[in-house]
Amino acid sequence: MDTLVTIGKAASLTGISAKMIRYYEDIGVLKKASRTEAGYRLYNQTQLQQLGFIRRSRNLGFSMAEIQSLLKFWLDSDRESRQVKQLAQNHLQDINEKILALEKMKTVLQELADKCDGDDNAKCPILEGLAEFSS
Amino acid sequence: MDTLVTIGKAASLTGISAKMIRYYEDIGVLKKASRTEAGYRLYNQTQLQQLGFIRRSRNLGFSMAEIQSLLKFWLDSDRESRQVKQLAQNHLQDINEKILALEKMKTVLQELADKCDGDDNAKCPILEGLAEFSS
DNA sequence: AGTTGACCTTACAACCATGGTAAGGTTTAA
DNA sequence: TTAAACCTTACCATGGTTGTAAGGTCAACT
User: Is there a domain that residue B14 lies in?
Assistant: First the structure.
């Protein structure tokens, strides 16, 4: 017996807002949901699972395009784990690059902040650093 | 003698695209530039310095709203370095939170990827992890 | 039956910083 | 004079999400 729920219930069950569920359908990440006679979207257990899959993927920072691929792999019994791992490793590289970029910002900014007295004087090495000719 | 340049020159001199220079003027981060009779924007040395300031601030990840504040501080001889340092430290906290979030993603995803053979088999712990009921 | 409140629908705008395009005016150099 | 390289404004798109507005539906209570 397929328990069907409307979008609000699906939202609270999966932690994805109704708004986003509609959006995912819109951009083709989710198949179009069935409807009641009045036009209300209905979701079954399988679709709720997919929403959970999407939420966990988003939590790991995957883009919607990547999640679309991941979902396809998940639903495709002929997939090769190589493909999935490749996608994951590309994303890991993205993450690493972002971390590196942030670490660089952090280092530079921390150095400037450390030099700044942070009192009621106007002299401010942070502003001086940002104003520097060099870079 | 104030050397005046048009927007393309300002762009190549400061590393900020002409598009963005107009945008910064539009949102009020930069004062409106003076114009030639034909309506071309003109930039003097001071304005070029401000554009450099903006670029370096962007490189450190500051938002335009924050940069607007930083620029005001820079131009205000009555500022207190306390205010600037506070702004910088808030941003440093943002950066740290982003790094932490990314590190968490990285850890989880790396664990999943490590468990995945990445061969021509369909079995894939990455997909299994994303499909998990638990989270 | 009627009303109320909680739900659902679509369609639109906004966010942020940036890039792109289009249609047109200006300047400079050949 | 013409061509190239500039400039102008005014749009649209990105990505993922939220907000709002104007309306239809459903269930429960009076």
Answer: yes
